[in-house]
């Protein structure tokens, strides 16, 4: 962004705000928190534009996503520190080896079911599935043990599978 182009920040915001809101909602369930984190993310984006390095198509979107994910993680660490990864095993968790069928399940419903996971489970699930982080990387990001990351992911998958099956049985 050049110093003289005052329309560039607005264009960047208008182009990516919807997508980046979606990224935030994968991590945060409260819409006011999403708005706050998105606002902080854009402040960081605009103040850090000089550090962006173009590496081909998609590099800007990847850079923006990384900033938003980091802002979400910072918010989660502050807001949910006591419960983030010390959530107890939920009664609804099952060890069913039969994965749910996703055909006919809309992305909106799947997204909502992921958003309803407890914060720690949701965070690890998103980092592993969407950000493609290893459990070692997740452990480092969240200051937890690698085994805790793997356990949280396993539990998140089981809870999500149970909720998908329940949703499908209630909405044939």
Question: Can you describe this structure?
Answer:
The structure is a single chain. This protein is mainly α and 172 residues long. 24% of the residues are buried. Helix 1 (7-27) packs across helix 2 (31-47), helix 2 (31-47) packs across helix 3 (59-79) and helix 6 (135-142) crosses helix 7. It has helices spanning 7-27, 31-47, 59-79, 107-115, 119-129, 135-142, 146-170.
Feature tags:
172 residues; mainly alpha; 65% helix; globular
Please give the count of helices.
7
Percent helix, as a range, is: 55-70%
Residue fraction in strands:
under 5%
By helix and strand content, what is the structural category?
mainly alpha
**What is the overall pLDDT average?**
87
Shape: globular
**What summary fits the major beta sheet?**
none
> Can you tell me the residue ranges where pLDDT is under 50 for at least 5 consecutive residues?
87-91
Order of helices and strands: HHHHHHH
Ends: how far apart?
A: 50 Å
Number of beta strands: 0
- Using only C-alpha atoms, the radius of gyration works out to 18 Å
